Design the sequence.
C-alpha cells in the first residue's frame, strides 16, 4: 500500500487525475510484484517526459463498431487506462456474440500486457493480443531502428488460474533500456547496436542505435507482422517509420469449440506442467 500511495502522489504531480493515478499505480505495483522493475514505479519518470503528457486527454470513444468488433480512439490516454476500457468492451461482446475483435489507436504505454488478458481469461474467455509501438528495434543488418518492441500475448482460461504467455519481439524491452540508460548500466550480453552500427550492450548506446529483434530473422519477421497489424488499426507513419502505437485484441469463448469442462481439464493439466509464462 505504501508503494501504491507513493506512486499515486507522483502520478498526480505529473498531470494525472486522482482516478487515473489510482488505476496506473495499481498496474505499476503489480508489475513490480511480478519482478519487472523497469515496468514498476520507475516508469513514472519516463511518463513525465513523454510528449503525450502535454496534449489534452479526452474520454476513450468508439470510432467504428459492429456486434463483434470495435475500433477505439484512446483519447491520448496512457494505455494503463484506455486498455482497461478495451478489455471491458471485449468481454461484453464475447458474452453476447462469442467473439470480439478490438482495435485501438491514439494511446500509449500499456505496460504489462498479461495484466489485461488475465481479466479476459478470468472471465472465462481466450484471447490473443498484439501491439506495435515507436521504433526501438533495428532490422538484421540495418543501422536505423524501424520497429517497436511489438509484444505478443496469449491467454487461456483455466479452472483455477489462467494460462498466459506474454513476450516482446525485441531482444530487450524498451522500458528496460530506458531504466538502465538512466542508471548508466549495461546488459549482460550484446543486444543491439550503437549509433555507428557497432554491437553494444550499453543501454545509453542502444537508445541512440537500437535493439535487435529476438531470435534473429524469425523474431524480426514476427515483429514486422505485428507492426503491420498496428498500422491496420490506426498507428501512424512518419518518414517511413511507425511513430505511433497500435493495439489489436482478439477474444473468444472457448465453448465455440469444446465444452467448458473439457477445456478446464486440458488447461489444468497444461497449467500444472508449465504455469504462468512471461518473457
Sequence:
Amino acid at each position: 500500500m505504501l508503494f501504491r500511495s507513493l506512486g499515486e502522489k507522483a502520478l498526480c504531480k505529473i498531470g494525472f487525475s486522482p482516478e487515473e493515478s489510482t488505476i496506473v499505480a495499481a498496474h505499476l505495483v503489480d508489475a513490480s510484484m511480478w519482478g519487472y522493475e523497469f515496468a514498476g514505479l520507475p516508469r513514472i519518470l519516463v511518463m513525465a517526459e513523454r510528449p503525450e503528457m502535454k496534449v489534452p486527454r479526452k474520454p476513450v470513444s468508439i470510432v467504428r463498431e459492429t456486434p463483434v468488433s470495435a475500433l477505439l480512439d484512446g483519447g491520448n490516454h496512457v494505455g494503463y487506462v484506455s486498455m482497461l476500457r478495451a478489455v471491458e468492451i471485449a468481454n461484453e461482446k464475447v458474452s453476447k456474440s462469442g467473439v470480439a475483435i478490438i482495435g485501438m489507436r491514439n494511446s500509449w504505454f500499456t505496460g504489462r500486457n498479461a495484466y489485461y488478458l488475465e481479466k479476459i481469461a478470468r472471465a472465462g474467455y481466450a484471447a490473443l493480443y498484439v501491439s506495435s509501438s515507436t521504433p526501438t528495434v533495428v532490422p538484421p543488418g540495418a543501422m536505423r531502428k524501424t520497429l517497436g518492441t511489438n509484444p505478443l500475448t496469449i491467454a487461456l482460461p483455466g479452472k483455477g488460474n489462467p494460462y498466459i504467455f506474454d513476450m516482446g519481439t525485441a531482444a530487450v524491452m524498451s522500458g528496460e533500456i530506458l531504466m538502465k540508460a538512466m542508471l548508466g548500466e549495461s546488459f549482460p550480453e550484446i543486444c543491439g547496436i550503437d549509433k555507428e552500427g557497432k554491437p553494444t550492450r550499453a543501454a545509453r548506446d542502444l537508445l541512440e542505435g537500437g535493439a535487435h529483434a529476438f531470435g534473429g530473422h524469425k523474431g524480426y519477421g514476427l515483429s514486422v507482422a505485428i507492426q503491420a497489424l498496428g498500422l491496420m488499426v490506426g498507428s501512424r507513419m512518419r518518414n517511413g517509420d511507425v511513430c505511433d502505437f497500435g493495439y489489436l485484441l482478439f477474444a473468444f469463448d472457448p465453448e465455440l469449440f469444446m465444452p467448458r469442462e473439457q477445456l478446464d481439464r486440458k488447461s489444468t493439466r497444461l497449467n500444472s506442467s508449465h504455469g504462468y509464462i512471461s518473457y
Remarks:
- The chain has nine helices and 13 strands.
- The longest strand covers residues 69-78.
